[in-house]
Amino acid sequence: LVSCAKRAKTPNSELAVCRVLLAELEAHQDAWPFLSPVKLKSVPGYRKVIKKPMDFFTIKEKLINNMYLNQENFIIDVNLVFDNCQKFNEDDSEIGQAGHRMKRFFDKRWTELLRKQ
Ligand SMILES: Cn1cc(C(=O)NCCCNC(=O)c2ccc(F)cc2)ccc1=O
Q1: What mean pLDDT, rounded, does the chain reach?
Q2: What is the pLDDT of residues 53-66, one digit of tens each?
Q3: Helices 94-116, 71-88: inter-axial angle, 10-degree rounding
Q4: Which residues of 34-71 are buried (b: 16+ CB within 10 A; e: fewer)?
Q5: What's the CA-to-centroid distance between 33 and ligand 1, angstroms?
């Protein structure tokens, strides 16, 4: 028998993992700084320092509107949230600490979910 070709992951099954993971990020107790876009008018300097703002609500919108072609683009946006946070906030600040905890959580869950696929 010819061995069946490795089943290609269809984009929607790839993105299903992204939806699961985003829901877990949003439910995390340290998610509060990232749930909505940083208010550029009320956070002095943010607009100048952070060239590509990103947040979990925007990521959810992009998932719903099929703006991610694959998991990679989703991961890039999630990491943008954490990279922006590290750039703008001191490591020992409230928001800086939340960002480090959220990044550790994301990295752990992503590898767990990917190993399962
Ligand atoms: C990532 N980042 C966030 C802020 C920031 O000021 N973010 C808003 C905090 C206030 N938002 C809340 O407290 C909140 C939001 C939603 C919710 F469901 C419960 C509480 C500033 C710099 C920065 O780099």
Answers
A1: 93
A2: 999 999 999 999 99
A3: 160
A4: beeebeeeeeeeeeeebeeebbbebbbebbeeeebeeb
A5: 3
Is ligand 1 within 6 A of the CB of residue 95?
yes
User: What pLDDT, on a 0 to 100 scale, did the predictor assign at position 9?
Assistant: 65
Q: Which atom of ligand 1 is nearest to the CA of 55?
A: 1
Q: Check residue 66 and give left, alpha or beta (phi > 0: left; psi -120 to 50: alpha).
A: left
Q: Does the beta carbon of 38 lie inside 6 Å of ligand 1?
A: yes
Alpha carbons within 13 A on the beta-carbon side of 79: 8
pLDDT of residue 4: 62
